[in-house]
Amino acid sequence: MPQRYTTPAIVLHWLIAAMIIVNVALAWIWDSLPDADVRPTINMHKSIGITVLGLAILRLLWRATHRPPEFPTSYQRWERRLSHGVHGLLYFLMFALPLTGWIMDSAWAKAAANPIHWFGLFDFPRIGAIMRLDPATKKQIHEGFGALHSLSAKLLYGLLALHVGGALKHQWLDRERELQRMWPGS
After folding, report:
1. Cα 172 to Cα 7, 32, 69, 73, 74, distances in angstroms
2. Looking at the DSSP assignment, which residues form a beta bridge with residue 124?
3. How far apart are CA 26 and CA 50, in angstroms?
C-alpha cells in the first residue's frame, strides 16, 4: 500500500484543482457568451479566484506543518526534482493568478461601478490603494497585470499538463500506485 497524503491535503488538492479547472473553462468561454451572460461569468471567475487564494493559503499552511509522503524508491532523481519544481511553480501560480487578477481588477476603470459580489453573497473589497490612483496609472496597472495574469495562465496550462502527465506516467507506465496517494477514499 502506498503512503498517502493526509485527508485535509487530499481535500484541498481536489477542491483547488476543481476550482482551477472551472476557472480556466470560464475564461475560455466568456468571449463566446451573449453580452448579458459575460459579466456574471466574469464575476463567477473572480469569486472562484479569490476562493482559490484562500484555499491555497490553507494548503500552504497545512503543507508547512504536515510532511507529505515520500516518493516511491523507484522514482529517478530527475523525476523527483521535476516533481518538486512543478509543485513549487503550481503553488506560486495558486497565489500569482488570484493576486494578479485582483490587482488588475482593482485598477479597472469601471471597478467602482461594478463591485465584486463573492458568489452573490457579499461584496469582496478591491485594493483601495490601487483604486485611489489616477486614471492613467490605473490603466497601466490594469494592462500590465492583465498581461501578467494571462501569461501566468498559460504557464499554468503547461504545468498542469506536466503534473497530470507525470501522475499518469507513474500510474500506468511505471505501475506505481501514484494516484492512490492523492485519491479520495481508502
Report:
1. 24, 37, 20, 17, 14
2. 116
3. 15
Asked if 111 and 105 count as a contact pair (C-beta separation under 8 A), the reply is yes
pLDDT digits (tens, 9 = 90+) for 64-117: 999 999 988 889 999 999 999 999 999 999 999 999 999 999 999 999 999 999
Is residue 167 in some structural domain? yes
Residue 159, domain member (yes or no): yes
Task: Provide the domain limits for residue 159.
Answer: 7-182
State the pLDDT at residue 177: 82
Residue 110 φ then ψ, to 5°: -100, 15
Gap between the terminal Cα atoms of the chain: 10
Residue with cell 497585470: 145
Domains identified in the chain, total number? 1
Q: What is the CATH number of the domain that holds 24?
A: 1.20.950
Inter-axis angle of helices 7-29 and 135-168, to 10 degrees?
Answer: 120
Angle at Cα 49 formed by Cα 9 and Cα 41, nearest 5°? 130
**Mean pLDDT across 32-60:** 97
13 in any annotated domain: yes
Cβ pair 23, 49 in contact under 8 A: yes
Q: Count of CB atoms within 10 A of residue 12's CB?
A: 20
CA distance 10 to 177: 15
